[in-house]
Amino acid sequence: MASGGLQLLGFVLAFLGWIGIIISTAMPQWKMASYAGDNIVTAQALYEGLWMSCAMQSTGQIQCKVYDSLLKLEGSLQATRALMVAAILLGLVGMFVAVTGMKCMKCMEDDQVKKMRMAVFGGVIFIISGLAALVATSWYGNRVARAFYDPFTPVNTRFEFGSALFIGWAAASLAILGGSFLCCSCPRRETSYPPTRGYPKNASSTGKDYV
After folding, report:
1. Poorest-pLDDT segment among 98-102, 123-127, 191-195, 196-200
2. Is 197 a domain residue?
C-alpha cells in the first residue's frame, strides 16, 4: 500500500510539473523591463518570451507581437525553445508510460514486475523532462542576469527575471521530484530458493499382527 501511495504521489507531482512547463513555455513573461518617460502616462512594462514580445501601457492595454522569422532569432533563444518543447513531449510520453505502470490501473496485471518497471521507466522520462526544462530556464535566466549587470547595456533596456522563469523552475523541480518518487517503486529482487523436498513417509506395514 505504501508503494502504491508513493507511486500516486509521484505521478501527481510529475503531472503538475508537466502542466507548469507548458504554462511557462506559453507565457510571454520570460523577461520584463519597466521604465517611465517624462510623463507617468507613458509608463510601459515590456515583456519578452519565447514566442512573442508584449508591451503593457499604464492604462492596462496590452499589445503583443509574435516574432516574425525563426531565422532572425538568436541561437540561444532557439535552443531554449527546443529544450522546452522537448520537455513537454517527454513529459507527455512519460505520463502515458507511468499510467501503464500504476498499481491502480488494470493494465499488465498478469506481470507485476513488468508493470512496476513501466512505472520506473515513466519516472525516468519525467526526470529527463524536468532536467531539460531546468537547463532551458536556467540558461535563459543566466543570459538575462549577465545582460543586466553588463555596464554597456543601456539602463532603459535592462531586463529582469519574468514570472515565467519562476514558474518554469518550480515546474521542473516538481517533474524531477515526481519522477524520483516513481523510480522509488522499483521492484526488489527476491532471492529464490530451490523448493524443499519432502521426506518420504515410512511405508505402513501390510502384515497383520498375530497374537
Report:
1. 191-195
2. no
CB 63 within 8 A of CB 193: no
Pairwise CA distance, residues 153 & 2, whole Å: 55
Contact 167, 23 (CB under 8 A): yes
Kindly state whether residue 124 falls inside one of the protein's structural domains: yes
In a domain, residue 68? The reply is no
What cell was used for 142? 543566466
- Number of domains within the chain: 1
Please provide residue 57's backbone torsions phi and psi, each rounded to the nearest 5 degrees. -80, 165
Residue 44: inside a domain: no
- The average pLDDT across 196-210 equals 50
Say if residue 44 is exposed, middle or buried (CB neighbours under 10 Å; 0-12, 13-18, 19+).
middle
Tell me how far apart the alpha carbons of residues 206 and 23 are, in angstroms, rounded to a whole number: 85
CATH (domain of 178): 1.20.140.150
11's grid cell: 505521478
- Determine what percent of the chain is predicted with pLDDT higher than 90: 39
What pLDDT is attached to residue 83? 96
Q: pTM (2 decimals)?
A: 0.79
Burial of 60 (0-12, 13-18, 19+ CB in 10 A): exposed
What's the domain range around 170? 4-27+75-184
